Amino acid sequence: xxxxxxxxxxxxxxxxxxxxxxxxxxxxxxxxxxxxxxxxxxxxxxxxxxxxxxxxxxxxxxxxxxxxxxxxxxxxxxxxxxxxxxxxxxxxxxxxxxxxxxxxxxxxxxxxxxxxxxxxxxxxxxxxxxxxxxxxxxxxxxxxxxxxxxxxxxxxxxxxxxxxxxxxxxxxxxxxxxxxxxxxxxxxxxxxxxxxxxxxxxxxxxxxxxxxxxxxxxxxxxxxxxxxxxxxxxxxxxxxxxxxxxxxxxxxxxxxxxxxxxxxxxxxxxxxxxxxxxxxxxxxxxxxxxxxxxxxxxxxxxxxxxxxxxxxxxxxxxxxxxxxxxxxxxxxxxxxxxxxxxxxxxxxxxxxxxxxxxxxxxxxxxxxxxxxxxxxxxxxxxxxxxxxxxxxxxxxxx
Length: 398
Ligand SMILES: *Cc1c(COP(=O)(O)O)cnc(C)c1O
Known about the structure:
Blueprint: H1 5-8, E1 15-17, H2 31-40, H3 47-62, E2 66-70, H4 73-86, H5 90-95, E3 105-109, H6 120-125, E4 130-134, H7 142-148, E5 153-159, H8 172-181, E6 186-189, H9 198-201, E7 206-210, E8 221-225, H10 227-234, H11 248-263, H12 266-284, E9 290-296, E10 304-310, H13 312-315, H14 319-328, E11 333-335, E12 344-347, H15 356-372, H16 382-395
Parallel strand pairs: 1-11, 3-4, 3-5, 5-6, 6-7
Antiparallel strand pairs: 2-8, 7-8, 9-10, 10-12
Helix pairs in contact: 2-11, 3-11, 4-10, 12-15
The chain binds pyridoxal-5'-phosphate.
Pyridoxal-5'-phosphate (PLP) binds next to helix 4.
């Protein structure tokens, strides 16, 4: 690798073992994607034609009728919902978020109302649509969905993610059957899902992916599915989509990333990730108060992670204390800590540069050795830790 640009502008050279996080810059963009993007940047293009080429690439990769690139998956959700309300009617498109004269309700299971850094409900409401909640957080049934769908329903939204409640929900197939029985299209947020074709097979009319997550592409969203719905999504560029504009470099970068995905040696990637996990298991085994086990991805993506349980009595440090020490160190190591209140965090090997797994293992050893020498438990209050994070947002840019 050439010189680290981060150091030039005073950024810490973080090592990402948390996954594909917007807060850390998503993923390692493939070299061929970066080269494609810089090749198109100085050129003029007919942007609608470029979008047509992107539709062809998405159609092929996702076995879909058509596709379009948006600024992000979140923008894709907003624009697909908008499209379900307006169709390709330009007068209606210009009218949003005023939904006068349109079906404007979106049914969604309560357990699917996640935050991926922002509330998904807001991505729906921005269009002027009104979310209609189905069931309770951990309980949703077909009869509740049937009752929620009326002549005002424009779309049914379904979320597949580790962010959502993963039990007690309606299976996608049943959800789609109920929606289709009343002529309502099903929009699936599959931002982090590796399966580019299966969701459309299982009943989705639209499936939405992030280009900057597992695909290692630029920041963009990929909307794949039924041609009339994709067209209506794309046409929002003449309306509320304008403020979520995606440029030529990201459209083309996402195309290159999709094509690269089809050629990727997925088995080799898995072997590399497994080797990193093995390195970490070896480094953590036998350490007092630390229990590490390899766990599968909760939504069945072909990706394992290491779950590190930390018993503060034995380790002299809490799980969040260890996460914070690693993040504060040199180099900073950022772990996957959204469930840390249960006394564990995870280590995700999918965004490592070669050799970084050993740096991470060494940093763990340093912090755990230091904690053993401590007479009190390192970590502090979990509640205050969360407050500190919220306060940092309010204080920015300091
Ligand atoms: C990441 C994520 C999003 C947002 O994707 P962006 O492309 O970053 O906007 C939406 N939904 C789910 C389930 C996600 O994991």
